[in-house]
Amino acid sequence: MAPTLLVQTISSVVAASTPLVFAGLGETLTEKAGVTNLSLDGTILLSAMTAFAVAYLSGSLLLGILAAMLVGALIALLVAWGSIALKQNQVAIGFVLTLLCADLSSFLGRPFVRIPGPSVPHLPIPGLVAIPVVGPILFNHNLLVYLSFALAIGVWLWIGHTRQGLVLRSVGERPESAYARGVNVHRTRYLYTLLGGALVGLAGATYSLSVKLGWSHRHTAGEGWIALAIVIFGGWSPWRVVLGAYFFGALKSLGSLMQPAFPDVPTQVFQAAPFALMIVVLVLASGDLKERLLALMHPRMRRLLSGMVRAGPPAALGKPFEPD
User: Fold this and answer.
1) pLDDT tens, 64-113?
2) How far apart, in Å, do the first and last CA atoms of the chain sit?
3) Is the distance from CB of 206 to CB of 18 less than 8 angstroms?
4) At a CB cut-off of 8 Å and minimum separation 6, what does 315 contact?
5) pTM > 0.70
6) Alpha carbons 178 and 300: distance in angstroms, whole number
7) Is residue 171 a contact partner of residue 183, using CB atoms and an 8 Å limit?
8) I want to staple 200 with a disulfide (CB 3.0 to 4.6 A). Which of 72, 102, 144, 190 is the partner?
9) Which CATH architecture has domain 3-309?
């Protein structure tokens, strides 16, 4: 592959993976607080439809994006309220909301199917875009892609290097201890669930206004499940979640590049291959199999890889908390 084509391919992977970066970081914040929001797939569908419809009717991209974030936050609020106030199972609530939102997106979005509409304009950064290799890859996109870069750094700093991040981690790991130190556990969980849901809504808006322009039935089906898998693959670490999003984007791009080289292979094989490979990676990166594979490696390689995959879920993830 020629260097120019390689740079263009990597740049397209970065742009196409932006929604997964938003959704993955949003779910990471939510799960770090101890709440599992399983409604991502339906939320992305409904917020993508909402963003396109509002932007199309109002002529304002900003209104479309804000409406999508509001939809994501409201759905996440239902998950938090059902699990915290009503003491219901988070997984069951999220799964039901996924099905409901998917059907709502198809029903409400019928007037907007396959019609041309607004899109986020391309905005190269002067000067930086001229940097060899790095410039075209990182600085030749639109504002949503640049926002994903800033958000990735911000979430990493917030979780790992601020007092508020310490509070967040304590609520997800040991809510009893956090409560004993004066932290309002329920309020913190509501806050980060709403924030995470808003970022999932932003992911939906990014699909319909930047990556996969317009709206159609089941427009982004499956992407929410991939975002959930990426959070697990990334070990609930913001920077590993971002790398996981780009990894999946690269797998999809690789499938597109390989398809012309193997014309006799059905198209569906290349479309499904990234999802299958993600499942394989998740299996290899978890459980006893991971430990057995690491034991076979050279000690230096073992230390490197074990550092990358040792993180586990927050100890109180999905568990209700009752103040004594």
Assistant:
1) 999 999 999 999 999 999 999 998 999 999 999 999 999 999 999 999 99
2) 63
3) yes
4) 172, 173, 174
5) yes
6) 37
7) yes
8) 72
9) Orthogonal Bundle (1.10)
